[in-house]
């Protein structure tokens, strides 16, 4: 089989040269192909990607009612469910695998596998493998798949068989169908490339992106530390890789003495086409026979459904066709229902608002009642209290009145003052003069009072003094007084005359 020769994986230069010598047929294909791959630098524009549904699975409706996965076959202990395939449960010595039903013939491809390897132990076993092989390795002891595979296996090896403390590890091993996997040494000497990554018990699913493009196999890993799906980091690369022209994609797992749950959440395959090359039409991949088969299957199901419907209607004549109509709704029905639901929600909101408004109004009414009861001063038990209150209010009112009066007075003063200042210009010193007069009046009043006081004090004191003092000087008679005054006046006149005579004599002398 020519494909058998061509479908062979090798990367190391040493290995390649030996193969070339031993297998002359390879010269027809490989050396030039390898050369082209080696010289070909990374393309400027990315390749065209097309999702291949027939080589993929993904939740949430991963499994069919009969327990199978569409376009895939599962073996061993694998348990497909709605959102994942448990390749092995965490039990001892389990093995399981899932393989595409049909063989692919993509020149370049990419697979994105999302999985979880979880176990209660600090160490788990054995591991998980992603395959691209010329045949389905449905059963075997290489991570749950067949040994002597033709193609490539990417192993997520949990258990450290050789005790070199280098597990968990991701290893790529190519095989042309002759190699026997060295399980005891974790395939250390057979590995084309490897990278140490712990993929067990991660908070988020681990993602592996395996790309085979222009004969270079690249593995990128999302370590499951973040929910970011695109958080990939480089793990390993194998250049000058030869793979079978046609192959099956698969994923397998196994447990040993130790056991982990090996769950695959999704397996997405993309066909890559180099820029400039024509993209193969998708329908060409599906054989006519399969098309017919699926069409037949569909028609068969349709007929069965109709039959069941009829039977049901016969058994339940009351329900008639309404049941079926109730289960499925048309676009118009859905729109109407959505409008109705929206309106219902608005109606409910309004109802709620109304209830709240009623509550507020009720509260207000209560307050108003309480206030009016207090105001009317009911004759009940609270009579005294209200009287006291009233008294207090009256008092404060009186106080207020006095204050108001005071303010009024002071305002009047201010007005007067302002009036005075207004008239100051025209009436001149009118205000001043009135003030003056009032001052004089006051002073006069004070003088008058003082005199009165003096008179009152003097009246009794005269009697007392007269009794104490000698009678002559104090009780002077008017006659003596006048005589004294006349003598003094005569003396004054004579002195004045004398002085005028003296002054006249002095003037004459000078
Ligand atoms: Ca191992
Ligand atoms: Ca190891």
From TrEMBL:
GO cellular component: COPII-coated ER to Golgi transport vesicle; endoplasmic reticulum membrane; endoplasmic reticulum-Golgi intermediate compartment membrane; Golgi membrane
Phylogenetic classification of the source organism: Eukaryota, Metazoa, Chordata, Craniata, Vertebrata
Alphabetized UniProt keyword annotations: Disulfide bond, Lectin, Membrane, Signal, Transmembrane, Transmembrane helix
Keyword Transmembrane: yes
BP terms from Gene Ontology: endoplasmic reticulum to Golgi vesicle-mediated transport
Protein's UniProt keywords contain Transmembrane helix: yes
CDD domains: lectin_ERGIC-53_ERGL (cd06902)
Membrane topology (UniProt): Single-pass type I membrane protein
Signal sequence segment: 1-37
Protein name: Protein ERGIC-53 isoform X1
GO molecular function, one term: D-mannose binding
Organism (species): Microcaecilia unicolor
InterPro entries: ConA-like_dom_sf (IPR013320), Intracellular_Lectin-GPT (IPR051136), Lectin_leg (IPR005052)
């Amino acid at each position: 089989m020519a494909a058998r020769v061509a479908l062979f994986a090798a990367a190391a230069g040493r290995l390649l040269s030996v193969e070339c010598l031993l297998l002359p047929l390879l010269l027809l294909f490989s050396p030039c192909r390898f050369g082209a791959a080696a010289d070909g630098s990374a393309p400027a524009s990315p390749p065209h990607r097309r999702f291949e549904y027939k080589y993929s699975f993904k939740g949430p409706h991963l499994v069919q009612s009969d327990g199978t996965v569409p376009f895939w076959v599962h073996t061993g202990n694998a348990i497909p469910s709605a959102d994942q395939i448990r390749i092995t449960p965490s039990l001892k010595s389990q093995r399981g695998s899932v393989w595409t039903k049909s063989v692919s013939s993509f020149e370049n491809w990419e697979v994105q596998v999302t999985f979880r390897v979880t176990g209660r132990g600090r160490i788990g076993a054995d591991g998980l493998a992603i395959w691209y092989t010329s045949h389905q390795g449905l059963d075997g002891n290489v991570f749950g798949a067949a040994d002597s595979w033709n193609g490539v296996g990417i192993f997520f090896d949990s258990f450290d068989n050789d005790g070199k403390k280098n597990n968990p590890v991701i290893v790529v091993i190519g095989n042309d169908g002759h190699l026997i996997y060295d399980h005891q040494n974790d395939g250390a000497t057979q590995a084309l490339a490897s990278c140490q990554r712990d993929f067990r018990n991660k908070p988020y699913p681990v993602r592996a992106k395996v790309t085979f493009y222009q004969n270079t196999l690249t593995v990128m890993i999302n370590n499951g530390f973040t929910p970011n799906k695109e958080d990939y980091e480089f793990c390993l690369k194998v250049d000058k890789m030869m793979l079978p022209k046609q192959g099956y994609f698969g994923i397998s797992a196994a447990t040993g003495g130790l056991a982990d749950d090996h769950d695959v959440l999704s397996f997405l395959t993309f066909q890559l086409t180099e820029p400039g090359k024509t993209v193969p039409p998708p329908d060409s991949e599906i054989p006519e026979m399969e098309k017919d088969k699926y069409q037949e299957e569909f028609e068969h199901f349709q007929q069965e459904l109709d039959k069941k419907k009829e039977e049901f209607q016969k058994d339940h004549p009351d329900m008639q066709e309404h049941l079926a109509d109730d289960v499925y709704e048309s676009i118009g029905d859905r729109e109407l229902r959505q409008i109705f639901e929206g309106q219902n929600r608005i109606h409910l909101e309004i109802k709620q608002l109304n209830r709240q408004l009623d509550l507020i109004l009720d509260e207000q009414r209560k307050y108003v009642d309480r206030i009016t009861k207090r105001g009317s001063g009911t004759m009940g038990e609270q009579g005294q209290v209200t009287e006291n209150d009233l008294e207090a209010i009256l008092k404060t009112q009186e106080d207020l009145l006095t204050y108001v009066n005071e303010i009024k007075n002071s305002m009047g003063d201010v007005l007067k003052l302002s009036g005075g200042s207004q008239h100051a210009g025209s009436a001149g010193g009118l205000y001043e003069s009135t003030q003056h007069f009032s001052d004089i009046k006051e002073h006069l009043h004070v003088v008058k009072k003082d005199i009165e006081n003096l008179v009152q004090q003097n009246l009794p004191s005269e009697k007392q003094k007269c009794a104490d003092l000698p009678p002559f000087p104090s009780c002077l008679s008017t006659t003596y007084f006048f005589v004294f005054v006349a003598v003094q006046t005569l003396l004054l006149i004579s002195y004045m005359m004398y002085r005028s005579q003296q002054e006249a004599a002095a003037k004459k002398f000078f």
